[in-house]
Amino acid sequence: MNVASPYRGLSPFADSDVDALYFFGRERDTEIVVANLIASRLTVLYGPSGVGKSSLLLASVARSLRDLPEEPLVVVFSAWADDAEGSLAEALAGPTGVESGGLFEVAERAQADRDLYVILDQAEESFTYEADAATLEAILVQLLAGDLRVNVLVSLREDTLARLDRLKARVPGMFGNVLRLDRLDRAAGRAAILQPLERWNELEGEIMRAEDGLVEEVLDGVGADRIGAEEHAGNGGSLIGARGIEAPYLQLVMERLWEVERAARSDELRLATLGRLGGPRRIVADHLDRAMRALAEPDRKIAADVFGHLVTPGGTKIAHTTDDLAQYAAVPVAALLPVLTELADRRILRSDEHGRYEIFHDVLAAEVLDWRRRKHGTEAGGTGESGPEEGAAAGDCGLDRARPGRP
């Protein structure tokens, strides 16, 4: 299949055949989410930032639903920045060929011949772009109206779950079916390392191994407590707890190892290479620093100004157009675009379907704020940013079962 790497780094798994083939560690979680979606008109899925909700929904849940004998229509929606209600109506009308119109009318026509599952992913972003939950409320009221054959899942970050309280009056059963997705446990983390490697060997006809001891060293290094994530207060009976594995960091470390070993024409992922790279924590910390060191100093200044508008003080990412970012940074668009392009190539930023730029992954938000603070410290005469030197040259199970009531 000519897949460059079995690991995704910070890129979320997508709704594609290839991504589904390499997505491991969340099999049981997939079964639970699918079962709840089928059984309930409304399911709320929440979890810590960066836990892998989007990857689970795109690469596994949505595809499992489409494989049902009834062949339902499954739509995953996350475009909250601009006219979300209208965009969702278009997303429902497109694959069915029904006439466009208001959301309720389109949903009614779309579900006339088959069941409809709507997954509202990254719903916390609706709170970023509006002062209240009016848009999300309007969407849910219409999709859950009457006898429509529409089942809905709302996925959002744990720290925004309370924002749904204001919807209880108009959305029936708002908290009647709640699931918490936690970080990977060690068994799931081990599967997320070894099974993609086995799949790659099978599909590519090559043999790449992981050295004894490497897997456990990586898992030790990408635990939530080791990376520095704050422990979640009041886990409420979670299966894993705050000591689980940070899936994005696991993927980032394994991707970096893979790149270095392949460049060296090695047929083994080696513990010694991990050590030369500084270990898992250094690989994670160095991802942003390496990208920023590649920029010329004037471009780093632009990046620092831009970062201040892409991450809120609370650590929430927010998308902006190129024109807006140029205005915020007080630079011409022509000077800004090469910086945005370079940061997108290095997976620090990405652009959405509307051309807005945002931080590439939730887990980078804190790193971006820290880098910006160090950058400003340098300009003020402090120690500021220095970043580690390069290392060697390069040439999820934790889902609480459904339970009634608020979590």
Strand order of the largest sheet: 2-3-4-1-5
CATH class of the largest domain: Alpha Beta
Query: What series of H and E elements makes up the topology?
Result: HHEHEHHEHHEEHEHHHEHHHHHEEH
Work out the radius of gyration.
Answer: 22 Å
Shape: globular
The computed structural class is: alpha/beta
Walkthrough of the structure:
- The protein has 17 helices and 9 strands.
- It has 3 domains: 26-180, 3-Layer(aba) Sandwich (Rossmann fold), CATH 3.40.50.300; 186-285, no CATH class; 294-379, Arc Repressor Mutant, subunit A (Orthogonal Bundle), CATH 1.10.10.10.
- The chain has 407 residues and is an alpha/beta fold.
- Helix 2 crosses helix 3, helix 14 (297-310) packs across helix 15 and helix 14 crosses helix 17.
- Helix content is 46%, strand content 9%.
- The strands form 3 sheets. Strands 2-3-4-1-5 form a 5-stranded parallel β-sheet, with helices on both faces. It has a two-stranded parallel sheet with strand order 6-7.
